[in-house]
Specification:
- By secondary structure, the protein is of the alpha+beta class.
- It has two domains: 8-239, Deoxyribonuclease I, Chain A; 249-308.
- It is 33% helix and 25% strand.
- It has six helices and 14 strands.
- The chain has helices spanning 25-39, 52-61, 125-141, 160-169, 249-274, 281-308, and strands spanning 8-14, 43-47, 66-70, 75-79, 83-92, 95-102, 109-115, 146-152, 171-173, 176-177, 180-181, 193-198, 205-211, 228-233.
- The strands form three sheets. The protein has a six-stranded mixed beta sheet, with helices on one face. A six-stranded mixed beta sheet has the order 5-6-7-8-12-9, covered by helices on one side. Strands 10-11 form a two-stranded antiparallel ribbon.
- Helix 1 (25-39) links the parallel strand 1 and strand 2.
- Helix 1 (25-39) runs parallel beside helix 2 and helix 4 (160-169) crosses helix 5 (249-274).
- The longest helix has 28 residues, at 281-308.
Length: 319
Amino acid sequence: MKAAAFSLVVLTLNVAGPRRLHQGWETRREAIAARVKEAAPDAAAFQDIWRAEDLDALAHAGGHGRSAADPALGLGVTSRLPIESSDSRDLGAGAGVLRARLDAGKSPIDVYSARLEPGEAPMGPRRLGQLFRLAEFVRSRSSSNSFVLLGDLGVAADERAPELLLDLLEARDLCVSHGDEVCGRTLGERRVDYALIPYSSRTPTEYARAAFTDLFTDDEEPAESHFGLRVRLDSRFPALKPAAAPQGRDEALAAILDALETARQDAERRSANAGWIPFLGARRYAAAEDELAELIALEEEVRSARLRGVPPAVPATPD
């Protein structure tokens, strides 16, 4: 009897859940649960899901008997497949990432749920630090396993920040096919949600589209309602392994270092000038010094990562 072809359906959604139950949330949760059941995913990644009972309800809707969560970061992964292990990392400023390793047969698969800080400064130093630390976490945990990184990165797909993440990981954005967007918007008029896998010349996916778009009618839809993504990965996916030395990684690290250096110099100027301002000077000086210390530490992290990626020098051969 011929074995069934491999197929993995994954979902991601920022549910915008409450930390404490409030009126109206249970109705919305029921609507989300109904869509999860309809989508019938093998695994799902949720962000801004703070309460265990909410994650349990969505896992039950998907027919998932396993879950991993970090309530402090508001992240969860549910699965119908066994979860071998899980861990997470706080990326700073409320951002974070959770990994769940699924037992998918011959090769385990790492499913990530990530949420980065939203905002209007996608190349700001804090976001750059989150992107860098996210990439380092994925590289350290999935050095020999295929992965799918799902979540809300808080910035539009046509901005520089997602490009840097793709270069740091040598990954493919499954919502881009032949240079065109195929998933549609997920927040307002932008797509801020992503499904990334190790790069391959052929996309191992049968389907990648926006999901949960019908939770509201056109008349009722809030201006900033958050949609998600649904992806179906085919039998080529488990064989994809992360690149040991991503081709664009050094350039991406260099770009991050340049931006951090500019931010550090700006913080140094603000620190030096703060003392001239009466009353507020001490407070602004302290804030600038704190920011400066964070930038220096982050610069050192990125610089060290870049040095680790440089191959050892080859001694000159005598003539």
